[in-house]
């Protein structure tokens, strides 16, 4: 076994040990029926507002000057756009208002800095957050002195603030993930520390009664038949196929909320 394969298996073993067993993998989301009715697809009220938040994976080069909901340019070119399109297609009578406010490079404290304008003022009924890769990654080049403990504490403070302002909001927490074979990743630097951030995200989802999307397992499972870099060439930012994989995982997780 070569060093890269050992690092990958070691990382996956540590992740499984940290997060525990019983991870549910997403299935493909069924399309609308022949009658055009969505049925029990998502338990949200008509006119509900859904907000995607996070870093570059969510941002996906969106036009930040476009603040309107349901906008092709405003939703970016990633999983948020694909999930939003699926929701709008399956639930046309609901007229859901869907925003993407992810910003490339953000860590949790940077979400908090803009949370009033980019979350609370929108009064979302559902907030989906994917953040954490930068909270770890940026410690490797000494541009940020963070830790798994700081990540967890900052995240909890953000959600406390959110629940205080929006007590009925539904929360969706995406697991930060990494593909160790990616071109931008030095596997040895990510093992085992990044697994602690993933474990923190799972604890937070549990403690705040949030839906949890196990993206690491989603990508690992999808890499059984194709090279993992098919889904994310650099190890962090998904390809078009990886974005669709994430959208399906998101939809499958939240459809029964």
Count of DSSP helices? Answer: 11
Mean pLDDT across residues: 88
**How is the main sheet built?**
5 strands, parallel
Helix content: 40-55%
How far apart are the termini?
43 Å
> Cα-atom Rg, whole angstroms?
18 Å
Q: Give the low-pLDDT segments.
A: 16-39
Q: How many strands?
A: 5
Order of helices and strands: HEHHEHHEHHEHHEHH
Overall geometry comes to globular
Write structural notes for this entry.
The chain has helices at residues 3-19, 56-59, 79-90, 108-113, 115-118, 133-137, 148-165, 187-190, 193-207, 215-222, 240-254; strands at 49-54, 97-100, 126-130, 170-174, 211-213. It is α/β, with parallel strands linked by helices. A 5-stranded parallel sheet has the order 2-1-3-4-5, with helices on both faces. Helix 1 packs parallel to helix 9, helix 3 (79-90) packs across helix 11 (240-254) and helix 10 (215-222) packs across helix 11 (240-254). The longest helix is centred in the middle third of the chain and has 18 residues, at 148-165. The radius of gyration is 18 Å and the shape is globular. The termini are far apart.
